[in-house]
Amino acid sequence: RSSYSCCYFLLPCCFFDFHGKYSRRQSKKTQYREYLDFVAQVGFVCGFHVEEDCLRIPSTKRVSFIGRSRTYAAAERALIDKQITQFIDSRRSCAVASCDRRVGFNHEDHWGGLCKETDSEPPEDETETAGTIWMPGFQPREKVEQIRNCASLPRDFVDEVVLNVANLLLNAAPQKSCSDKQGGNVNTWNQGESLSLREVAEHLNKETLKKLKSEYGGLQTLLKNNHQVFEVLNGRVHIRDWRKEKPPSKTKPEVKRRLSAEAFKTRLCWFFIHHPDGCSLPSEACPYAHGTEELR
Questions:
Q1: pTM of the predicted model as reported, rounded to 2 decimal places
Q2: Can you give the residue ranges of every domain in the chain?
Q3: In which order are the strands placed within the sheet that holds 195-196?
């Protein structure tokens, strides 16, 4: 309905109608085939020559539809738009009331398989608004989708939250001693305590929580994004101890090993800069740079 010159390509997947889940009407067909027929029917009702093709992709749902040309002249657009409105209304009726379950639909007959209400004229108010209002209450998506996974938050804001949460965990419990058997010395490195996400949120100010609330996942997403510093497991936040991380597998494909090596020391080590005990790993073993002179 966007324009007469519009073309489309569609790869149907999940079984949905205009107003909710698609309800089956043909027990003799598979659910997938029946849904494909319905999707093709939508294209025909909208006045397209609908072509069907099977894609060469590793998926069980690979049947696609292409609409490249119209079945009517541009001058008949208002009439077709009125028919589309009737079609949408009939699907709404089918979702609520019982539908006239005719067997299948013919590609030559655009209206096969519709509810009986379709044969009647649309209400007067819908006739007047056809072409100006597609359907009451319909809200299209914005042209530019807002990124809400904490990635677009200001860097200064993220750094401040990370530092506040890390200090909260470090000060939540007395310093713990961890034995480092290399050289027989006892190396004390404070890993702090683990707290629930709720406990962490209670210690953040209202302005910070307000900013995070507008993001999908909020605080948890922000902490998971900062994988270098935090580990979030079962709703609890821990400071990551890189000594416990598994070394990279030697069986990795060469390409992945090369990419991993290229990413080595491309960012500064947060622990080297901010942790009171520094980094738990020596410089040569840490994947992050201990100072700007090590940055690659």
A1: 0.52
A2: 8-96, 148-171+191-240, 243-295
A3: 195-196, 236-239, 230-233
